[in-house]
Amino acid sequence: MNTVIIGSGNVAYHLAKAFKERSLPVSLFGRNAGELERISDELDLPFYTELPKADLFLICVSDRAVEEVSLQIPYQDALVAHTSGSLPREALKGSYRKACFYPLQTFSRKQKLNYSEIPIFVDAETPEDANVLKHLASEISGSVMEISFEQRKYLHLTAVFACNFVNHLFARAKEIADAQEIPFRYFLPLIDETVKKIHHANPEDVQTGPAVRNDKTILERHEKLITNTETAKIYDVMNESIRTMYHLE
After folding, report:
1. Exposed end of the chain (fewer CB within 10 Å): N or C?
2. Residue 17: its pLDDT value, please?
3. Which of the residues in the chain have pLDDT under 70?
């Protein structure tokens, strides 16, 4: 299957690299010729600034740009999939076969990834196209699942809690450490061990800390130390959520 990846951002880069590593036919298309050329040189892939014909187009752009980009594809016999976790297939507005090809990962250009470990979720208008995408995804990943848009909405919501919110908590934690001139690297073993636990246990079963122990003395002491209003709100909300989950007074 001949695939064109549309876009030059982090998702486009990593999908192109995943295809290249698996020797899958792929080329690049987009408006940013300079960035496309850079990716092309690094990965040794062809790129186009005028849309070529292909069997599959993967639209790897921001959610707000998907509709505009989708209107540029004139090939009615093509399969076109966006890579958004939060948009339905109907966000694609052209006259072609519509689908979604969603890799569940946070992508940064400089971060090396093991693509075989990244789950890929597919959704298509027909069982035939779903099977095509599942087969393609299985060439890249060991975890492939067909899901509905309704499921994918909750998948994306879960990802926000598990990734975006957690990363923000890291940023807030670093603010506190930086203010006391404590290098944040000293917290990395603690973070790594916390994540390691949930590979083998239910997160609810391995919760630690003063809130789950209902240690009100420590909680009050911490509240007095926090001078940032937003951080104080987060501390209160998180502790209240823990107390609620564990039915603590």
Report:
1. C
2. 97
3. none
What residue has token string 């982090």?
Answer: 10
pLDDT value at residue 96: 97
Name beta bridge partners: 79: 56, 97
Residue 231 and residue 173: Cα distance in Å, rounded?
Answer: 9
- Cα–Cα dist 173/168, whole Å: 9
Are 242 and 207 contacting, i.e. CB atoms less than 8 angstroms apart?
A: yes
Residue showing tokens 């060991």: 142
Determine the Cα–Cα distance for residues 6 and 37; give it in Å rounded to an integer.
13
Q: What is the token pair recorded at 157?
A: 């919501």
Q: Is 158 helix (H, G, I), strand (E, B) or coil?
A: helix
| Among candidate residues 135, 122, 115, 118, the one with its CA nearest the CA of residue 16 | 115
Domains in the chain: ranges and CATH: 3-147 (3.40.50.720), 152-245 (1.10.1040.20)
Residue 49: predicted pLDDT: 87
Q: How far apart are CA 53 and CA 110, in angstroms?
A: 30
Task: Kindly report, residue by residue over 218-227, the tens digit of the pLDDT.
Answer: 999 999 999 9
The whole-model pTM stands at 0.91
Question: Strand, coil or helix: what is 10?
Answer: helix
Which residue in this structure is represented by tokens 């039915």?
247
Q: Per the structure block, which two tokens stand in for 213? A: 């122990």
